[in-house]
Specification:
6-stranded mixed β-sheet, 5 helices, 18% strand, alpha/beta, binds [cytidine-5'-phosphate] glycerylphosphoric acid ester, 177 residues
């Protein structure tokens, strides 16, 4: 059974690459995109650091249909992932993410100054530098929705195994009378 990684999840160092000079505090509107499935400390720290980059924060949450296109299946349905993110004090607006291509329209529509993603996307959205600042923030190591999903399914698999063994034992006990 993959061990559920409970090692220390250090606060990420800070900014990864393409970071504007924060001493000048760009403020303005900041946007990020993601699935945010099984919301965890990595997601929270990214959104809290995003708040430090702007006075208005927008999060585009991937819809279940778009996740299918991404080859992903979120455990938590879109409506609930949206509700969780909307309830955070560091988030001002949640919009749906339907496609990869919508970012430039979103940036223009919402007057975005800074686009933020975690460092696992380093360089992938540099083309957006044509319309706003692009910042990659260090990921929080030691936690991911994929790992949590895998741990959950293996725990459930074990549970099923245990209950099978139990019913076998009960049957055996019954036979032995
Ligand atoms: N993240 C993080 N630390 C982790 C896990 C995730 O900082 N331990 C960040 C990711 O880098 C990302 C954000 O949290 O910026 C959301 O991660 P996902 O939900 O995994 O996003 P993904 O499904 O990759 O969708 O158009 C972009 C896509 O929507 C990104």
């Amino acid at each position: 059974m993959p061990a559920y990684n409970i090692s220390r999840r250090d606060e990420p160092a800070g900014l990864s690459t393409g970071a504007p000079d924060m001493s000048k505090s760009t403020l303005g509107t900041v946007i990020t995109y993601g699935t945010f499935d099984i919301f965890h400390i990595g997601h929270l720290r990214l959104l809290k650091r995003m708040r430090e980059l702007g006075e208005r924060t927008i999060v585009a949450v991937s819809t279940d249909e778009f996740n299918r296109l991404k080859g992903k299946k979120a455990l938590i349905p879109y409506a609930e992932r949206k509700e969780i993110i909307e309830s955070l004090s560091c988030v001002d607006l949640v919009i749906p993410e339907h496609s990869w291509e919508q970012k430039i329209d979103d940036i223009r529509e919402h007057g975005v100054d800074t686009f933020v993603m975690g460092s696992d996307w380093n360089g992938k959205f540099d083309h957006l530098k044509a319309c706003c600042q692009v910042v990659y923030l260090d990921r929080t190591h030691g936690v991911s929705s994929t790992e949590l999903r895998e741990s959950l399914s293996s725990i459930l698999a074990d549970d099923r195994q245990i209950s099978n063994i139990l019913s076998l034992l009960k049957a055996l006990k019954g036979d032995l009378g």
